Amino acid sequence: MFRRERSIPLRGSAAALCNNLSVLQLPVRNLTHFGVVHGPSAQLLSAAPEGVPLAQRQLQAKEGAGVSPPLITQVHWCVLPFRVLLVLTSHRGIQMYESDGSVMVYWHALDAGDASLVQAVFARGIAASGHFICVGMWSGRVLVFDIPAKGPNIVLSEELAGHQTPITDIATEPAQGQLDCKPLENRDCVADMVTADDSGLLCVWQSGPEFKLLTRIPGFGVPCPSVQLWQGTVAAGYGNGQVRLYEASTGTLHVQIDAHARAICALDLAPEVGKLLSAAEDTFVHIWQLSRSPEGGYIEVEHCHGECVPDTQVCGARFCDPSGSSFAVTGYDLAEILRFSSM
Amino acid sequence: MSVRTLPLLFLNLGGEMLYILDQRLRAQNIPGDKARKVLNDIISTMFNRKFMEELFKPQELYSKKALRTVYDRLAHASIMRLNQASMDKLYDLMTMAFKYQVLLCPRPKDVLLVTFNHLDAIKGFIQDSPTILHQVDETFQQLTEIYGGLSAGEFQLIRQTLLIFFQDLHIRVSIFLKDKVQNSNGRFVLPVSGPLPWGTKVPGLVRTFNNKGEEVRKVEFKHGGSYVAAPKEGSFELYGDRVLKLGTNMYSVNRPMETHMSGASENLAAQTQESIAPNPLAKEELNLLARLIGGMEIKKPSGPEPGFRLNLFTTDEEEETSRRTKSWLGSWGSLRSWTSQGGVPARAMICLP
């Protein structure tokens, strides 16, 4: 059972985008950072354990050429081995900041080049993989940036081709989730990144100095707005309300959940305990327990909890602690972050 | 965002405008021939070929202010006159209605069915005018050509673009409050029951498969809602059962259409913020707007046809309250002086701080 905790007010309401909430947990400092996209601006704020807001900052999308100010598509914290960067994607480019948003360390302008007149040009989908940051594009390409341990000397090292339609989300194997823990030394699973797109296609990759495409998991006519990766299992949320879990290395479908009545907008993982969170435009947030079956070793899912956020078209949801005992939700038109914790 | 959004926004808002005007014309007992002339003039201006050509070009959405200017012009395409307060209220009702329809569309693609519902109703208004009917059918063909082949992902982007346009608008509308589709805080009710989108299964089932693809387990869970599968998919043909009721005419003769002024000041503050903030890109928007409106052929009220004034308010007192609430909006002042003059070149229409 979960109860509503005190909400955190936002300066501007959340935009109707998918994956519109990023959370950076800093348990050592007793702080949680939240990032929400409003439209042409994104809001970062930090809060103390009881949800007491401490500091906030607004970031704007860079380069205002055109009829209207450019819109931000996503804001996301990337936890790398030696630093944390905040990445912001928009219809003009990719902005990378120090984790508190105080200093922009890198700007990559989008090259509209091949886009036809009718295609919207934007970057969307952000994830950290080792010392790389991967960002998706409207074209289906995924840009791989090599991030140094400190400083602004960020280099575009690779452009991955696997998708033909706009990237929606990227997920990587969590490195135990927290800034102060060492990343996994001996990895059993070779597949450590998955990218998703508007056609529902998933590509599974192995990271490295050169990323290698391992598997392709075809879509079925609906977008896949949100994806997660946990211990070799891909969890994907689709536009028809389904959540599907696949074996990452082979692409085999193991679990199919008719989870929601509208398009899924966000998935999140509490990797230490194997909990999965799904949120959708149907106003519901569901929490699932992932486990391995004793017989076949394949993934199994059990429903733990469902929460209705009345009259709210949810657009972002994240766990707020590593044990998955609390989560936060944003909704379209809502100027606050709703918080829930288990009793 | 999506560069394919403007036609859908324009046609649906235009459709809502016609529903409201039609209801007010009947409520004010405007003679049948005059009422028909007004609707015919507005509809033929809306669906003018040159105008539609401009509209359908891939482009970003206009600002709320710029779009409002287009409707001001459209509403005055005939012998009917609306004063400032009535025009404001008309626009509030139009935008909240379409916001509601977009928000409640089960699938992003259903916004096309909403558009077809509006077009079907518009054809009902002009049944005795074959020329205008033909214009509307042509627009229908264009919509089918452009949107018929779009993917679910592209429709999702269109939906997101529309919702960003309507973000933070919470004007309370009497008819919505009475029907309990809007809460007293201005937010729409999102039901957790009813028909599902076409292509979505009833939530509540977890199916597990082994490595060979055989189902090994099937478990139900309590999902919290009360949904039923959609009976059938709405038709995207020129004629057909759209199934979806969103976008059909919700105004019958006796239904009220007040907006609640007590909540208005908070909404006006949000809207003012947009008017006051300086817009350095206004020149480009001005040019786009001029091209769009330049395509509109507005009939100026000629000699023997006397114009008449339509009132969106049921009582003078309500109108006076509205006028007092809005009189401090400095930026609307120049717009008011424009509308009283009638035909003014496009460049003079935009009021910018």
Automatic annotation (TrEMBL), chain A:
One of its GO terms (biological process) is single fertilization. Residues 1-342 form the WD repeat-containing protein 54 beta-propeller domain. It is found in: Cell membrane; Cytoplasm; Vesicle. This is WD repeat-containing protein 54 isoform X1. It comes from Delphinapterus leucas (Beluga whale). It holds the Pfam family WDR54. GO terms for cellular component: cytoplasm; plasma membrane; vesicle. Homodimer and homotrimer; forms tight forms of dimers and trimers. Interacts with IZUMO1 and IZUMO1R/JUNO. Keywords: Cell membrane, Cytoplasm, Fertilization, Membrane, Repeat, Ubl conjugation, WD repeat. It comes from the Eukaryota. Plays a role in the adhesion and fusion of the sperm-oocyte membrane through its interactions with IZUMO1 and IZUMO1R/JUNO. When cross-linked to form dimers and trimers, it has a regulatory effect on ERK signaling pathway activity in response to EGF stimulation. Colocalizes with the EGF receptor in WDR54-specific vesicle where it sustains the internalization and controls the degradation of the EGF receptor after EGF stimulation. Its main location: membrane. The keyword Chaperone does not apply. The keyword Cytoplasm applies. WD repeats lie at residues 257-291. InterPro entries: WD40/YVTN_repeat-like_dom_sf (IPR015943), WD40_repeat_dom_sf (IPR036322), WD40_rpt (IPR001680), WDR54_beta_prop (IPR049546). Gene3D superfamilies: YVTN repeat-like/Quinoprotein amine dehydrogenase (2.130.10.10).
UniProtKB/TrEMBL annotation, chain B:
Pfam families: Oscp1. GO terms for cellular component: cytoplasm; plasma membrane. It comes from the Eukaryota. Coiled coil: none annotated. InterPro entries: OSCP1. PANTHER family: OXIDORED-NITRO DOMAIN-CONTAINING PROTEIN, PROTEIN OSCP1. This is Protein OSCP1 isoform X2. It comes from Delphinapterus leucas (Beluga whale). The gene is OSCP1.
